[in-house]
Amino acid sequence: MAKDISTQEDQTNAQQRRAQGEFVRGVSGFRHWIGDDGFPAEPRRYHLFVALNCPWCHRVTLARSVLGLEGAITMDIAFPNRTTPDDPAGPNLWEFSPERKASLTGEPLAECTRETGTGEGLRLAKEIYCREGSDEQSVPILYDKIAGRIVNNESAEIIRMLDAHAAALGSVIPDAERVRLVPDDTALQQALAALNEQIYNGINNGAYKAGFSSDQAVYEEAFTTYFETLDQLEDLLSDGRRFLTGEAFTEADLRLFPTLYRHDPVYYVRMKLNGARILDYPQLWRWLCRVHALPGVIGSGSLVHCRQGYFGRSWNGVVPLGPFTPMEYPKAYEHPQLARNSA
Q1: Whether 161 and 211 share a structural domain
Q2: Is 267 a catalytic residue?
Q3: Do 247 and 318 fall into the same domain?
């Protein structure tokens, strides 16, 4: 199984770049692998800590769902907004707090859970890391409940492990019917590697470069690259293929989906990516609807969590109610014919 697949951001002069207003994503510190390092592939051994608003977590929850691992890998879901400045532990920490109310709904979010993976009922994701002497605090986390250790917190590697060991981990989908995110074909693997890099740099991380950098030039470069990449992917799909590499759903589709799922209802405004909506790209819109319709996809994410998580962290905490034209989201994803200039 190939391990050099995470496509992480160059850390050269990261501190200086951040000081100058650029968003620079950090590097995940836990990089163990199921099947190696004392972590056997066994059903019901592993646990995920995620937040449904986080697109990197969405990769992992999506893989867990489409691979038939929902009953075999348990999962805790953090509240989409992190702790506030008056929290005793400090601000900006992922919190397992099912009683916390969302400003969007005025009620607790039904998906949010308490922490159950460690058996200690911890409140913060940071506390899971502290048990291993780490100062990290990010999600997703893949956790070994038997060993009581963090396996991995790099989403790209987690989805590869789930795909490679799906049967041994307890997938309920027969081998012949289960998707293969990374097929054995060498040429296809090379195509996936190229697409992964293109999608990560231009779309996945590019959205954050645009939305969270405070330097105008950095924003403009990320904005331009984001929409150029959308144009390239639109062109790729224009030959009639169902998915990015052909007729089968693969890792490239899984990596692209969380960002495009968020674009129209969230990123268009929050990440200042208002050049166009995915509705304006007929091929990409139909692709988005096609992926959304796959078994397991709808339950793997939540636009309520996305709206609350992104806008709830803005300066006034107010969450926009739209868009509702031409249709409310995510209901719109059930209607591929809504695409602009759609035949």
Answers
A1: no
A2: no
A3: yes
